[in-house]
């Protein structure tokens, strides 16, 4: 038994062949002759009453649509913009007269998914990802690279990243980090809600956690 995938591939191959065939025929005869004996496969009649938007300087309103082969702009696959799809585009969607199919279905979906993800990620989630990434640094011994990343986070315009950087320093808990945490923690007098206040709180918490396992701090 054939899988759906096989069947789709066969249909596509047949459509491509047919589109090439139609194109070849159009070189020797015009479309009216083509359809003299009625519609041929790969052809759909146009409903001119739905094509008012076609009446531009662009030219004639089409009598019908023909399957058109095209190459996907992104993946290079051979595809067919079928006559039915064109009819739907021009008459139902009332899409642009100048439109051409340029991407295969899979590539269109991939683009849409990327765009949606980018929209979702704007702001909040990117920050969330960055927080998670910084936290993960704390589970390993500091390296030059991760130390630099924490330094960068400390300069971030996002307060939450700066706070996480302080927490990570606390978890690393080397002498140099302890010293810096103590300096942060010393700034207790700052006004509630200020960055210094938040930093002091985060540093104090990190030092307290450190103290439980290392009482000499
Ligand atoms: Zn593609």
Order of strands across the widest beta sheet? Answer: 1-2
Backbone structural class: mainly alpha
The largest sheet is: 2 strands, antiparallel
Number of helices: 9
Classify the oligomer: single chain
Q: Any low-confidence stretches, pLDDT <50, length ≥5?
A: 213-217
The Cα radius of gyration reads 32 Å
Q: Which shape, going by the Cα principal axes?
A: elongated
Strand segment count:
4
Mean pLDDT metric: 83
Tell me the distance between the termini: 73 Å
What proportion of the residues is helical, as a percent range?
Answer: 55-70%
The string of secondary-structure elements, in order, is HHEEEEHHHHHHH
Beta-strand percent range: 5-15%
Bound molecules: zinc ion
How many domains? The number is 2
Short summary:
With 217 residues, the protein is mostly helical.
Describe how the helices and strands are arranged.
Layout: H1 4-28, H2 31-34, E1 43-45, E2 64-66, E3 68-71, E4 78-81, H3 83-92, H4 105-121, H5 124-137, H6 144-154, H7 159-172, H8 175-185, H9 195-213
Antiparallel strand pairs: 1-2, 3-4
The structure holds zinc ion.
